[in-house]
Structure of 4-amino-4-deoxychorismate lyase:
Amino acid sequence: MSLPFTLLIDPVPADSERTTFEDTFHEMESAAPALRVGELSTQRGDGIFETLSVVNGHPQEVEPHIARLCNSAQICDLPVPNSAQWRAAISYAVARLPHEGELALKFVLSRGVESGPAPTAWLHATRAADFSAARRNGVRVITLDRGYPRGVAERAPWLLMGAKTLSYAVNMAALREAHRRGADDTIFLTTDDYVMEGPTSSVILRTGGVYVTPAPSGAILHGTTQQSMFDYLRDQGEKVEYRDVTIDELRQADAAWLVSSVRLAVAITALDGEPMRTDQPLTAALNAYLLARTA
Ligand code: PLP
């Protein structure tokens, strides 16, 4: 099967007794129209998604991605996803996709068509963007104010901060702002100067010999790649920690990374124009580990 690959899915309720789902999957021609104009995903960005990496035929971190889809659904009052159906859809797609190289597999659950009977779901696979230079050379990052204080998720849950929604216009605008300022990527800060996350990545830093990431306490996503990286570091006997991180602490870190499913780990080489220390041997080891995952 050539890429891109699109599978429309008739979502099955989570409490269904079904164990087979193939009749709910509809393969689409890549150029064929697939969504209705009344789709709330396209009209309002009202839906949720996940993107996982497929490396040499192995979909990575399937269970953490499905778990986060379920968490996003709960935050957004969407029907509970049927995890078995999503698992089956991912396997169905992977069996039909090229078994060499890196692919990005996105899966989406939208609220569906206005006053329609059911949510809309689909899966879409493409070749992954080439991150090899960023993995080798790192990225220059700027910080940008996200406009909310620490604790915003508890105070204003309707902002859906901890859900991976389709409303990524702000995230994309932040990346364009980074490019305008001559950088490659962005880290969002709270109005009171705590580190949040990148527009499409988690932030990890090493300080005082401990690997730290901002606690996913509702205002940011709990990154699946960050969790894999912490597993690797723990296995190496390193200390890892979730806690609040101030921008000053990030500026003084021994090393820092942006991590996400398809890019994997890239070192931050400069922050707001100031050079950052890096650990390229560790970055290379991390990426070798992340690429070799087979589950
Ligand atoms: N935070 C945001 C806002 C993201 O969009 C992403 C991934 O796209 C991440 C964090 C990293 O998540 P993961 O490692 O599961 O890809």
About this structure: The mean pLDDT is 96. The pocket of pyridoxal-5'-phosphate is lined by residues 51, 197, 199-202, 221, 223-226, 259-261 (CB under 6 Å).
